[in-house]
Amino acid sequence: MSEAKTFFQLSGRGYAAATLSNATLLVIDAQEEYRSGVVRLPGLEAAMLQIGRLLEAARAAGTPVVHVRHLGVPGGLFDPQGNRGQFLQEVAPLENETVVGKSLPNAFANTGLAARLEELGHLDLIVCGFMSHSSVSSTVRAAKDYGYRCTLVDDACATRDLPSAQGVISADTVHRAEMTVMADNFATVTFCDNLV
After folding, report:
1. Which end of the chain has fewer CB atoms < 10 Å from its terminal CB, N or C?
2. Residues of the chain with pLDDT > 90: what percent?
3. Does pTM surpass 0.90?
4. Can you state the angle between helices 137-145 and 171-185, rounded to 10 degrees?
């Protein structure tokens, strides 16, 4: 049996990780729901520290930053009027940074994200945020359709335990599987230390 290879390797279409000097930083759904709401993520604090490092380095380098905010249902998940829908204070946008609201996992769906990224003019996106298997994955997949090259920051993303017919799948297993799938054909996956 031959050695397993990614689709990027098989097709010859892989690419190196972006740098903060030639990309836009895209921070997805860094919101209180994941810390104090019903969708608490076990890896949130560690990932949030890495997002903070990316933001600090991006701001120092003059890298454009776009924050995506999930707009949920008033009184429910990601309540846009309540605390759970607000940005995590530690990684909240600055006044001059773009904020895009979304109502679906894919941040390009029915939002102004594509137009804003086109204005910013970078082919490369550095992506981080929550959750690895949902909004992060959906947005990275869509970004490929729009012609963007994504660099996905593994340790600046997190997810949660998921139920299955065979029992609970741990957040770590879900995250590892999603990063592996993304690295196959959708993004170059790297770690924060390689970017800051």
Report:
1. N
2. 95
3. yes
4. 10
